[in-house]
């Protein structure tokens, strides 16, 4: 008897699709029925046949004809919608289906078509290499995988495939480097570990190194690793005795590991600090924020939430981000806020493969549904209301709100802040002590049996970050948080258009009026990351910014025009134009529209003329942005992370995130400096040993080996 979707009466195509996505892991046949119902309800949408085809490929890998019908339809509909990623996913799935059937020529053509649309598609590159190897074209397979790593140096199956292929072709040293790199990207993968043992000769039969159609690529098992910026180049790989590190002690639950299937219910946290607003002076209107902190503040909180999830053996319900759209001069300009899921920016598959059990909020609570939970642990009930705006936004309510003393996260601070029923809202602080936070959380909530453990403020597990010298738990957790592929693809596209292969200096500087008045002049802003912050560090004058850029440019031998600027400057005439016209600094920006032609003049000749005029005037603009406005910050940060040299703005969390990304890429800290820093501060920043989890990628720097992004 055919399986039915069993959706509620009068369901829409979107509802059937959503139900199918929720069921595809636990009830795949019912999920396929839901996708089929969604396709009948909306025959012009690409998503139902795409998910039907990919799920069929997963549960019936040799049902080639059935898979092909649905994926061809998805590709055709995706083209009609101009949805490149959907078309590429359908073509990649077709490649897998034909590869499973031994139809090598058709499989290769499908993979090549997918790569023509998305060159950074890690899975499609590995699939094409599988096909080339299956027909004996080993050298060609190596070329495919090396091209994949040129697009995305953190593609696990490309490294793994090269480990097996290079050994087959006689390059044992190269094979070993790539085996190490593959395991760093995907720790504890059984097949990757077997390959490494075989390369070392640890009693593994030689056929463990065979390379052919039976590879580690499937339609759904391998994510697009274009989101990854977590390792250095394989050429700067680990020493031959290296093995994947154990979980840091501060992330290890009671008993050393979580029970199979998990021990408890989910962890739900509101990381969005409330109480902030701005006054629109023109309209005489006060506008409240959903979140005082912006993207990188929430990201910093998310790191602690992920760590706590591991400590307590609770899946984390990911809170997403409230992203602001509109003018950046927040003291006088209106803006809008929009909630976006965490997967909009970060690769969840990479997190899950590293052992972080995460669930999207919309998976846990579908949009439009409401849910009442038994209790909420609140950090300051009695002196102020619990923080409820995030929960109310998602139709979540609580029967009981309990005052609770727990360490909550402090931006830019290693100290723990404890708050409970505190009339002055000051709380009290305890100095950073390694392991203190983890020990407290295990003892206090480790045996909590509630279905949902909920907090109204971001918790802290106690992570060291003074002088931007990340402790082991922070480094390990942040190292597995990787941006999605489109962010990296956009950053690469813009960086290549602006600088080609030439070295360049990236500069980040905060410039919004809120920065000066609401942070730099406050006691809070004057002690961050363990440093006493001066105005020269926090908000240097435009003249000082220009002097420091010239000094860094000269120190590292950067050509005068090869400077990338990332800033929240509210308008060019207040900052950028002064840098260019008064101080002679030539630089590039991402997405700055002033030198772009209007829509009416948007011909190729007009674009070229505008670019020539901009360069002649000392301005440099890359291609127009290909992503939505919400990606502007993450693209800026990714370009800065890829730059051979970086000049940052402590105490900004934007700069802190860029430093974390640069550490993950593998740039040495001698390639980074900051506004207002003297030798003592730079020595504190640079006197840092990479944590155990990632140290192997730095082991050969002294030999002149450079990361993959170096020029």
SSE blueprint and pairings:
Elements: H1 13-23, H2 28-41, H3 47-59, H4 64-80, H5 84-100, H6 104-117, H7 122-134, H8 138-151, H9 156-168, H10 172-185, H11 190-200, E1 266-269, E2 277-280, E3 285-288, H12 295-312, E4 316-318, E5 321-326, E6 335-340, H13 348-353, E7 358-360, H14 361-364, E8 371-378, H15 389-393, E9 396-403, E10 406-408, E11 416-419, E12 428-430, H16 436-445, E13 452-455, H17 472-479, H18 485-499, E14 505-509, H19 513-520, E15 527-528, E16 531-532, H20 535-538, H21 542-556, E17 563-567, H22 576-581, E18 587-589, H23 604-616, E19 619-621, H24 632-642, E20 645-648, H25 653-665, E21 672-674, H26 679-686
Parallel strand pairs: 1-4, 1-13, 4-7, 8-9, 14-17, 14-20, 18-19, 20-21
Antiparallel strand pairs: 2-3, 5-6, 10-11, 11-12, 15-16
> Could you say what the CATH architecture of the largest domain is?
Alpha Horseshoe
Strand arrangement, major sheet: 7-4-1-13
Head-to-tail CA distance between termini: 61 Å
Average pLDDT, all residues: 79
- Note the total helix count: 26
Oligomeric state, counting identical vs distinct chains: single chain
CATH topology of the largest domain: Serine Threonine Protein Phosphatase 5, Tetratricopeptide repeat
Radius of gyration: 26 Å
The tally of structural domains comes to 3
Structural class: alpha/beta
Shape by Cα distribution:
globular
Q: Sketch the major β-sheet.
A: 4 strands, parallel
Pathway: Protein modification; protein glycosylation
GO cellular component, one term: endoplasmic reticulum
Subcellular location: Endoplasmic reticulum
Keywords: Carbohydrate metabolism, Disulfide bond, Endoplasmic reticulum, Fucose metabolism, Glycoprotein, Glycosyltransferase, Notch signaling pathway, TPR repeat, Transferase
């Amino acid at each position: 008897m055919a399986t039915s979707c069993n959706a509620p009466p009068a369901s829409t195509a979107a509802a059937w699709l959503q139900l199918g996505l929720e069921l595809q892991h636990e009830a795949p046949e019912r999920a396929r029925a839901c996708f089929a119902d969604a396709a009948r309800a909306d025959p012009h949408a690409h998503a139902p046949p795409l998910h039907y085809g990919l799920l069929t490929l997963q549960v019936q890998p040799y049902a080639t004809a059935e898979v092909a019908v649905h994926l061809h339809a998805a590709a055709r509909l995706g083209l009609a919608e101009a949805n490149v990623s959907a078309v590429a996913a359908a073509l990649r799935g077709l490649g897998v289906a034909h590869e499973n059937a031994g139809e090598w020529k058709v499989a290769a053509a499908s993979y090549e078509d997918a790569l023509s649309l998305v060159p950074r598609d890690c899975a499609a590159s590995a699939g094409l290499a599988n096909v080339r190897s299956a027909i004996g074209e080993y050298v060609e397979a190596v070329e495919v995988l090396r091209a994949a790593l040129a697009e995305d140096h953190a593609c696990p199956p490309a490294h793994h495939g090269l480990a097996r292929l290079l050994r087959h072709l006689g390059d044992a040293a190269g094979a070993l480097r790539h085996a190490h790199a593959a395991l760093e990207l995907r720790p504890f993968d059984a097949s990757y570990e077997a390959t490494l043992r075989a390369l070392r000769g640890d009693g593994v039969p030689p056929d463990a190194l065979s390379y052919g159609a039976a590879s580690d690529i499937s339609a759904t098992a391998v994510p697009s690793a274009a989101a990854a910026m977590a390792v250095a180049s394989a050429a700067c790989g680990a020493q031959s005795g290296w093995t994947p590190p154990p979980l840091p002690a501060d992330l290890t639950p009671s008993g050393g590991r979580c029970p199979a299937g998990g021990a408890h219910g989910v962890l739900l946290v509101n990381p969005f600090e409330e109480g902030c607003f701005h006054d629109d002076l023109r309209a005489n209107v006060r506008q409240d924020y959903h979140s005082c902190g912006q993207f990188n503040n929430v990201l910093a909180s998310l790191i602690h939430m992920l760590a706590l999830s591991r400590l307590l053996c609770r899946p984390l319900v990911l809170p997403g981000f409230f992203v602001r759209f509109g003018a950046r001069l927040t003291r006088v300009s209106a803006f809008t806020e929009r909630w976006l899921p965490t997967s909009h920016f970060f690769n969840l598959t990479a997190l899950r493969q590293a052992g972080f059990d995460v669930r999207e909020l919309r998976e846990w609570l579908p949009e439009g549904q409401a849910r009442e939970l038994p209790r909420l642990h609140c950090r300051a009930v009695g002196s102020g209301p619990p923080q409820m705006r995030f929960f109310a936004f998602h139709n979540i309510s609580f029967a009981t709100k309990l005052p609770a003393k727990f360490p909550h996260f402090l931006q830019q601070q290693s100290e723990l802040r404890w708050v409970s029923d505190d009339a002055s809202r000051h709380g009290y602080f305890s100095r950073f002590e390694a392991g203190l936070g983890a020990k407290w959380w295990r003892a206090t909530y480790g045996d909590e049996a509630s279905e949902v453990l909920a907090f109204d403020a971001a918790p802290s597990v106690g992570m060291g970050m003074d002088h931007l010298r990340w402790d082991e738990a922070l480094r390990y957790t942040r190292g597995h948080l990787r941006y999605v592929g489109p962010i990296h693809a956009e950053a690469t596209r813009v960086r290549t258009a602006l600088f080609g292969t030439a070295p360049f200096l990236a500069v980040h500087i905060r410039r919004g009026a809120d920065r000066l008045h609401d942070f730099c002049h406050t006691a809070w802003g004057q002690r961050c990351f363990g440093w006493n912050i001066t105005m020269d560090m926090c908000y240097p004058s435009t003249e000082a910014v220009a002097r420091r850029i010239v000094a860094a440019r000269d120190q590292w031998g950067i050509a005068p025009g090869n400077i990338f600027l990332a800033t929240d400057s509210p308008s060019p005439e207040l900052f950028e134009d002064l840098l260019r016209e008064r101080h002679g600094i030539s630089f590039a920006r991402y997405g700055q529209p002033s030198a772009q032609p209007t829509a009416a003049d948007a011909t190729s000749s007009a674009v070229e003329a505008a670019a020539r005029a901009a360069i002649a005037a000392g301005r440099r603009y890359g291609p127009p942005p290909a992503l939505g406005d919400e990606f502007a910050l993450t693209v800026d940060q990714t370009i800065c992370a890829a730059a051979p040299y970086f000049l940052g703005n402590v105490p900004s969390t934007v700069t802190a995130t860029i430093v974390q990304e640069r550490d993950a890429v593998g740039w040495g800290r001698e390639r980074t400096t900051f506004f207002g820093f003297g030798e003592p501060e730079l020595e504190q920043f640079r006197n840092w040993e990479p944590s155990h989890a990632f140290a192997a990628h730095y082991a050969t720097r002294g030999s002149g080996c450079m990361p993959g992004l170096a020029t």
